[in-house]
Amino acid sequence: MRILLMHPNYHSGGAEIAGNWPPAWVAYLAGALKSAGFDDLRFVDAMTNDLSEDQVRDILRDEKPDIIGCTAITPSIYKAERLLEIAKEMHPDAVTVLGGIHATFMYNQVLTEAPWIDAIVRGEGEEIIVDLVRAIDERRWPQCRKDIKGIAYRDGDRVIATAAAPTVKNLDAIAPDWGVLQWDKYIYIPMNARVAIPNMARLPDPRSKEGR
Ligand code: B12
């Protein structure tokens, strides 16, 4: 089960003036996947490496992934959709997955305008992606997709969203794999130093015992 995670090549010209920033989402997902035994995983940062569509094609040709995962915030959605379109053209049998803040809320629109995306992961990805990859690995996909919490997909002309997945409850079990990132690429220019973005903002659900 070969997994390829890619950050789309979108540039806002805003916060990036201060440097190249490591994409934290991939470290968190890679950690969860590897802990679950899915360690044939590679990450390509098309944004930081400013990869053209042809370069992305070359990588997809070499990697021959079974699953291609991409992220998107709202401004980068069309770049992400295009990246997954190229992936689907090159590997029609691979499963294309999109996650991140934009698709979490706008899955209906995204799946309508980009029908080549097989699954959207809504919300925190660590547990949902493991459920999804396990289903693919065990050849239960796509028959079982309605039973996987926290995803959305197309069924013919309809967009289906499964029940929301619970947020990750055991925060201590979150173990990002920072080793997937090419650290020499991520520099904060004003200090000419390497930069990291650990995620400190997750809280237990306030309704849960831990949150009270
Ligand atoms: C760090 C950060 C940055 C960094 C980005 C570093 C990088 N290379 O990724 C920098 C400083 C460069 C940046 C820039 C910008 N940012 Co910013 N940024 C953030 C911030 C503070 C944290 C993001 C983060 O890393 N979170 C931690 C990770 C672990 O969480 P996550 O990304 O959500 O990923 C989880 C899930 O979403 C899911 N997931 C995500 N991707 C995928 C993919 C798959 C396949 C799966 C299965 C799951 C999955 O699983 C992950 C683990 O649970 C957020 C605010 C926030 N608190 O989220 C704003 C935020 C994402 N940024 C935002 C914006 C607008 C921008 C800029 C456009 C600002 C500007 N005008 O220039 C630029 C865009 C730059 C670019 N080229 O993309 C907005 C996006 C709003 C929206 N609707 O999309 C946010 C939400 C802030 C806000 N509230 O307005 N940003």
Tell me the domain tally.
Answer: 1
Oligomer: single chain
CATH superfamily: Response regulator
Total number of beta strands: 9
**What's the end-to-end separation, in Å?**
40 Å
Q: How would a crystallographer describe the biggest sheet?
A: 7 strands, mixed
- What ligands are attached or bound here? cobalamin
Write down the CATH class: Alpha Beta
Order of helices and strands: EHEHEHEHEHEEEE
**Known CATH architecture:** 3-Layer(aba) Sandwich
CATH level 3 topology:
Rossmann fold
Structural class: alpha/beta
> Strand share of the residues?
15-25%
Unreliable stretches covering 5 or more consecutive residues: none
* Physical arrangement of strands within the biggest beta sheet: 2-1-3-4-5-6-7
Radius of gyration: 17 Å
Sequence-ordered SSE layout with sheet pairings:
Blueprint: E1 3-7, H1 24-35, E2 41-45, H2 53-63, E3 67-71, H3 77-90, E4 95-99, H4 101-113, E5 119-121, H5 126-137, E6 151-155, E7 158-161, E8 187-188, E9 193-194
Parallel strand pairs: 1-2, 1-3, 3-4, 4-5
Antiparallel strand pairs: 5-6, 6-7, 8-9
The structure holds cobalamin (B12).
